[in-house]
Amino acid sequence: MSLSIMLSQLSVGMVRAVGIFALTLLFSLPLGMLIAFARMSKNAIIKNIARVYISVLRGTPLMLQLLVVYFAPFYLWHANISGYRFAAVIIGFSLNYAAYFAEIYRGGIQSIPQGQYEAAQVLGYSKSQTFFRIVLPQVVKNILPAVTNEVITLVKDTSLAFALAYQEVFTLAKQIAAAQTNFIPFVVAAIFYYVFNVLVAFVMERIESKMDYYR
Amino acid sequence: MKILEINNSRKHFGDLEVLKDISLSVEKNQVVSIIGPSGSGKSTLLRCATLLETLDGGDLIYLGDYAAKADENGNAVYASPEELKKIKMNFGLVFQNFNLFPHYSVLKNVMEAPVLVQKRNKEEVKAEAMELLRKMGLEDKADVYPYQLSGGQQQRVSIARALAMKPNILFFDEPTSALDPELTGEILKVIKDLAAEHMTMVIVTHEMAFARDVSDYIIFMDGGVIVEEGTPDQVINHPTQERTKLFLSRFKND
Ligand SMILES: Nc1ncnc2c1ncn2[C@@H]1O[C@H](COP(=O)(O)OP(=O)(O)OP(=O)(O)O)[C@@H](O)[C@H]1O
Ligand SMILES: [Mg+2]
């Protein structure tokens, strides 16, 4: 197999890895906010459900969670799960990362001093105005470093989709390497992950420096 | 004309009775200072008056409108949220530690609430905000962020922010306590200027000389009750209660 054929096959996997990455962020960032609110709810039932959710999702391997998400419909309802592979990958990743983001959000929201809420309240801001104008912008700045860590981990974690035999770049590299007894696919995959991460780190740094106008 | 009236107010936290049957009223253009030892309930009284805490009992009245009204058992019953929202526009509060919004420029700190909450014209508000900042000696600081200011400057911004809402009464909770001693003077001067312009104010302070100079009326609180009240001359120069004398003796060297 020529290098160019190998690269073109691997590039399909690269696009899929980027897809997992982007869709996971798209769903897990807002879902994490919902879970964070549930976790901070005054309602004890909602709070405890969120607490258990976060604990389980952070306390068990992502790979195992992917398998559960993928095979559960079959074992529970004998559903036909062919064609569900990609959705299962996205659902599994999103549920898992939302748990991590929820805890980051919660820490960020709780770090906002009570005085900020009180100042806004006396000035007549509504609850939602206070949250979106006063609290959230400060939370975003506070949590950005922690979010960056998670996002960088996610780049590497996309390779775990191999557990469901989803053909992203790592799965493909393994297959090609085995079939061709060739080490090169692994090198290409490694370079891909590294460059991807450098780009992500660069973008996150830009965002962080954008928020540097105040302390 | 009474701007604020509080009748028989009560407030407790757990087992602790923090306000025990406190009544006071503030006339238009009056400056009232509240003094007293730590833990006597001064901040709690201000927080109840500004709706940051809810009273257990008593009336809370702004310009004849009841924010809270005692029922037949004396328990405070609050007005509807819409009513309270309107009543809230009567007062402003200046905090001990400023509580400026750190992600907003000085100008935006001052401008946002009048535009967002009071739905006033943005250009008008901006002109007024700049005028307030000029009065506070901060006209060249409009575009900087709070972290770039000294504590005294931050407190002046927070006073401007409160004044921009055109309140009928302004509350101060120890406005100089978080400041270095050399910066307290500039804030006390601002408050004196406001008093000279007949701003109605209620000031919790530990600055006795200032309270004596600026106030029309002084309230001495201890243990959740008003122990003594009257003109500065009565309360500070000629106190009649032992507890007042004891408290004031600690400030004799001022
Ligand atoms: N949210 C709260 N929960 C429980 N106890 C409180 C709360 N707020 C105040 N207290 C208690 O109520 C009492 C009165 O407090 P407050 O802050 O009103 O006193 P203060 O007169 O303002 O004192 P200082 O001069 O130190 O500011 C104190 O014993 C305080 O511990
Ligand atoms: Mg206090």
Features:
heterodimer, A: mainly alpha, 81% helix, 0% strand, B: 254 residues, alpha/beta, 6-stranded mixed sheet, 5-stranded antiparallel sheet, 27% strand, globular, binds magnesium ion
Please sum up the structure shown.
The complex is a heterodimer of chains A (215) and B (254). Chain A is mostly helical and 215 residues long. Chain A contains 8 helices and no strands.
List the helices and strands and how they pair.
The complex is a heterodimer of chains A (215) and B (254).
Chain A lengths: L2 H37 L4 H16 L2 H16 L7 H26 L3 H9 L4 H31 L11 H12 L3 H27 L5
Chain B lengths: L1 E12 L2 E12 L3 E5 L6 H8 L7 E6 L2 E6 L5 E3 L2 H8 L2 E4 L11 H11 L5 H14 L15 H13 L5 E5 L7 H16 L4 E4 L3 H7 L2 E6 L2 E6 L1 H6 L4 H8 L5
Parallel strand pairs in B: 3-9, 3-10, 7-8, 8-9
Antiparallel strand pairs in B: 1-2, 1-4, 4-5, 5-6, 10-11
Helix pairs in contact in B: 3-4, 3-5, 5-6
The complex binds adenosine-5'-triphosphate and magnesium ion.
Magnesium ion binds next to α1 of chain B.
Explain how this protein is built.
- The complex is a heterodimer of chains A (215) and B (254).
- Helix content of chain A is 81%, strand content 0%.
- Chain A is mostly helical and 215 residues long.
- The model of chain A has no long low-confidence stretch (mean pLDDT 94).
- Chain B has 254 residues and is α/β, with parallel strands linked by helices.
- Helix content of chain B is 36%, strand content 27%.
- Chain B is built from 9 helices and 11 strands.
- In chain B, the strands form 2 sheets. In chain B, strands 7-8-9-3-10-11 form a 6-stranded mixed beta sheet, sandwiched between helices. In chain B, strands 2-1-4-5-6 form a 5-stranded antiparallel beta sheet.
- The longest helix of chain B has 16 residues.
- Chain B is globular, with a radius of gyration of 18 Å.
- The structure holds adenosine-5'-triphosphate and magnesium ion.
- Adenosine-5'-triphosphate binds next to β2 and α1 of chain B.
- Adenosine-5'-triphosphate (ATP) binds next to β2 and α1 of chain B.
